[in-house]
Amino acid sequence: MVLLQLMYIDLDFMSKFNIEIEVLQQFLFEVYRHYNNIPFHNFKHCFCVTQMMYGLIWLTDLQNKMDDIDILTMLTSAICHDLDHPGYNNAYQINARTELALRYNDISPLENHHCSVAFKILEKSDNNIFRNLTTEQFKRIREGMIKCVLATDMARHNEILNQFRSIMPVFDFNNKKHKDVLTMIIIKVSDISNEARPMDVAEPWLDCLLQEFFNQSDMEKLEGLPVSPFMDRDKVTKPSSQTGFIRFVLLPLFIELANLFPNLEQHIIDPVRKALDYYTEMENALEMEKLNRTGSSQSDKIGKPVENQEESKRVQIQLSQTKP
Ligand SMILES: Nc1nc2c(ncn2[C@@H]2O[C@@H]3COP(=O)(O)O[C@H]3[C@H]2O)c(=O)[nH]1
Ligand SMILES: [Zn+2]
Question: ipTM strictly over 0.95?
Answer without folding.
Answer: yes
